[in-house]
Amino acid sequence: AIDKDSSQPLKKYIKELGGWPIVDGHKWNESRFDWKQTMIKLMKLGFNHNILFTLYVSPDIKTSEKHIITIDQPSLGTPNRKYLLRGLNDTVVRAYKKVIIESAQSLGVKNRTYLENEANKIIAFEAKLAEYSIPSEKRRNFTELYNKYTIEEMQTLAPSIDFLDIIRAIVSEDIQKDEFVIIKVPKFLTNLESLLLEEDERTIANYMVWRAVFSSIAQLDRKWRNIIENYDRVLSGRTIEKARWDTCIKKLFNYFGTPLSALYVRHTFDEKSREIASQMVTYIKNRFISILETINWMDEKTRKRALDKAKAIRPQIGYSTELLDDNKIGEIYENLTLETNTYYESIQKMRLFFNEMDLKKLREAYLKDE
């Protein structure tokens, strides 16, 4: 079915995104492009929307019972920003550029000089995003990454970007301008605004749609998978192509990990052994609490804090009991509908389904054993 569909599913989605300039050439209409609407469309179609900046819902580390909207620097097409910062002479970047060119060729573009020029612009734009992002070694201090703003206050960082509209479209329509958000790298948003104002619309559109194409390649036919194989080899150093069954198993676990884990648990684990282990942990916990209550070298304030922490311990033995409850597992997937004859669209629907599930957690209490 995948080989039979070939590029058709991808072409359909590219059209819904407003076309890919590198493929459409002079027919692409710049006046109809709006990067904010394209970002929203990417999310609604099941693509990664976090390609100019990242927008997601996560536990609030300073109010641990709640979730909060979090804004961060974007994901990149290469696994590390350092490659893009090295420029077109870098081996990984050259392989990455080749994927862009061959993807456009697979969609019918023949002019190599034109493709080289367009691909260079895409990479130069992404390199700017990499330049404005901070490296992983500077992201270890969680306090520095915890910058709480209201959406109205966030607007002052990049006045030309209507964050409220974007957040409402992606997270929830009931979001108001006094909603709190965490902005991990505030300066990134200011730099992003400058980049978007100075860059031409064609390059921004080329980059955004390219990222949708790039994330689609693994779901397409053999011709497409051959395009990315060389890039993967450059990144990993592999000389042998990864077995197709390995990819299929990983996809299966990625989207259906819970029911598969339930099957594994039911066929492998001995419930009696779990009960014995649970009793042991409970005994150790209770013994520790009794020791805390009797030691004389600890002041009362410290003792109370230690006791509160000890009593809050929630043992996790082997697996969650929810894996034994078919109804609980069924609830996770009850709103997911898949068409079995379209692999590509099934993947997109699952991506959207799980992304929406995470975004809907905003108004839910955060459970520490999630």
From TrEMBL:
GO terms for cellular component: plasma membrane. One of its GO terms (biological process) is protein processing. PROSITE patterns: NEPRILYSIN. InterPro entries: Peptidase_M13, Peptidase_M13_dom_2, Peptidase_M13_N. It comes from the Eukaryota. Residues 1-319 form the Peptidase M13 N-terminal domain. Gene3D superfamilies: Neutral endopeptidase , domain2 (1.10.1380.10). It holds the Pfam family Peptidase_M13_N. GO terms for molecular function: metalloendopeptidase activity. Belongs to the peptidase M13 family. This is Membrane metallo-endopeptidase-like 1. It comes from Leptotrombidium deliense. The lineage of its organism: Eukaryota, Metazoa, Ecdysozoa, Arthropoda, Chelicerata.
